[in-house]
Design a protein that fits this description.
By secondary structure, the chain is of the alpha/beta class. Helix content is 45%, strand content 17%.
């Protein structure tokens, strides 16, 4: 529900003149008093007194306790509860003040109470015995002091609001939201009304905290909370459900209507960057949608189904929405897609996809030698090793260019300018772990090591190439409708191996012919690059240990060169 700055207060007193007094003190007419005080100050040239920016409260009146109870009940049903009630202690011929408060708390235990009395009908001990030992009520003696009335109203309504609101975003907190959820669920269940729920989770929010700090993360949460609140109707309830997750409850809405809202909201979040200290941050969100089902027993199941749909949306790539009903499709298309992608890199290790051999530089090499190295090998970075061949750093073209203006730059040992923080993984590391890392950070490649010595590199490009080849095979039918003897697959493997053998022979011949040349690097690099491409293609065409779609549409596994591939998880 969209928050309002004006709190609602209920006045319960059997004298109409008392209601008029309350309204003069608490209502919007107080603004006139401020204006008059300011005018008087200017007219009589007195020292100005501090003026309070007073917006007043939204006030409702009841002349009897039973009528007040009915108004509280109505406020709960409308989702616009009162924050505070001023209740007179003596209201003949109906309920007295203590009885009224006790009945009101039965339907709204959150409302705060100020009990007003000019008599001693109840002692303090008797009130505590009747209402309990708690901090939900105060006692105010008649005749009133205007400042005491206003101060009580301001302090208690603010306390009521804080107890129901998330401190950071101002949205409903879990406690307040759960109350609305149970109420709306009972109403929908009783009258057969539609009710939908959306769980919204910000994608990769941890990146913001890790790279820009938690202050920036808080600003992003506030901005998204404002967008969600602005996108909702006055009858909707928006809650910060936890961390970077939000929950939206939509009464009188089915799953289709909620999905339309969610898609529009998702696009709006992705389209409008959040600006922090002049820097624009793009934020996207994944959303799960569910609706009340006839066979559902509890409100918690509504949230649970939305949570399941949210999980699928995140696993399918994030920045999308998933409807819970789509997960129950007999064909299980979404489940099948999720299962296929989740299995693509499963069991695959870094050693099986890394680019090798890896070119390394010694730490005692100079910047000039490194520059020549980069130019000859057509690469832009390389691992740095010590005399024992152990990985100790990383050097890029950027590092070399950054020191060119210094004295004796060309002869500077690269050990002085290399980056010592190297991201490296052992050969047996899961490719899925590396893929997840490369998808979350600015680093483009990682070094693969064995016993501390670099043996290869896995880059975003090599992962995309592997994944691209796998997709091409699917489109070409390489994984579907194969004959029982798998002859087409075996033929492709044989042809690939033969192509690699021919390329190796050509490389050997080329090196032999150029043996007398001054520089053997160009023909070697050309031949090795071609070999690497052919080997990658052969890996991609390997059907062994890859998911194979058989005639009945199910997946089977066979052992092979690569291990079973696993998907690039968003």
């Amino acid at each position: 529900m969209n928050q309002k700055n004006t709190y609602r207060i209920l006045l319960i007193d059997d004298q109409e003149t008392i209601h008029q007094d309350y309204r003069k003190v608490l209502g919007t007419r107080a603004q006139q008093s401020v204006a008059l005080a300011k005018a008087a100050t200017e007219l009589f040239d007195d020292d100005p007194s501090p003026l309070v920016d007073w917006e007043g409260f939204e006030l409702d009146s009841a002349l009897q306790g039973e009528q007040g109870f009915e108004l509280v009940q109505k406020s709960i049903e409308e989702g616009r509860p009162y924050a505070l009630a001023f209740v007179d202690i003596r209201m003949p011929p109906g309920w007295d003040g203590v009885q009224t408060v006790r009945r009101i708390w039965e339907i709204d235990p959150e409302i705060l109470i100020v009990i007003c009395s000019a008599y001693s009908d109840y002692s303090w001990e008797e009130m505590v015995q009747q209402l309990g030992r708690n901090d939900r009520f105060l006692i105010l003696k008649k005749p009133f002091d205007n400042i005491e009335v206003r101060q009580s109203a301001m302090a208690l309504t603010e306390r009521w609001g804080v107890s129901r609101s998330d401190v950071l975003t101002g949205l409903l907190n879990r406690r307040a939201f759960d109350g609305h959820l149970q109420l709306e669920w009972r109403r929908a269940h009783r009258h057969g009304l539609q009710l939908a729920c959306a769980l919204v989770d910000l994608d990769y929010f941890k990146r913001v905290n890790d790279t820009l700090g938690h202050t920036a993360g808080d600003l992003v949460l506030k901005a998204i909370a404002q967008r969600l609140q602005a996108a909702c109707r006055a009858t909707d309830f928006v809650c910060r459900y936890g961390g970077e997750e939000f929950c939206v409850l939509m009464p009188h809405t089915d799953e289709q209507g909620a999905a339309i809202w969610a898609e529009n909201t998702r696009e709006a979040i992705a389209a409008a960057d959040v600006t922090i200290d002049g820097r624009s941050i793009q934020v996207t969100a994944s959303i799960g949608i569910s609706e009340r089902l006839e066979q559902a027993d509890t409100a918690e199941e509504l949230i649970s189904r939305a949570d399941q749909a949210l999980l699928v949306a995140k696993e399918l790539g994030r920045n999308r929405l998933t409807r819970f009903s789509s997960m129950g499709d007999p064909a299980e298309s979404l489940r099948e897609e999720l299962r296929n992608r989740a299995n693509l890199f499963q069991g695959l290790t870094a050693k099986q996809v890394m680019t090798a051999p890896v070119a390394s530089l010694r730490a005692d090499a100079t910047a000039g030698e490194a520059a020549e190295f980069f130019l000859r090998f057509r690469i832009n970075s390389a691992p740095i090793v010590n005399q024992d061949g152990m990985l100790i750093g990383m050097l890029s073209e950027k590092d070399v260019i950054g020191m060119l203006l210094g004295q004796d730059a060309w002869s500077t040992p690269i050990g002085r300018i290399m980056q010592r923080n190297v991201i490296c993984y052992e050969e047996q590391t899961s490719v899925q772990s590396i893929c997840e890392f490369l998808s979350r950070v600015a680093v483009r490649r990682v070094v693969i090591v064995r016993d501390g010595r670099p043996t290869g590199v896995v880059s975003r490009g090599s992962l995309l190439r592997w994944y691209s080849n796998w997709i091409k095979m699917q489109k070409q039918g390489a994984l579907a409708g194969l004959d029982s003897d798998n002859a087409p697959a075996r033929l492709r493997l044989i042809q690939g191996a033969q192509a690699i053998a021919r390329c190796a022979v050509e490389l050997s011949d080329s090196v032999s012919v150029s043996a007398q040349a001054d520089d053997l690097v160009p023909p070697v690099i050309e031949g090795v690059s071609r070999l690497q491409e052919l080997i990658q293609d052969l890996f991609a065409c390997s059907r062994r240990d890859m998911p194979v779609i058989v005639g009945d549409g199910t997946l089977s596994q066979t052992s092979g060169l690569l291990g079973s591939p696993s998907a690039i998880v968003g």
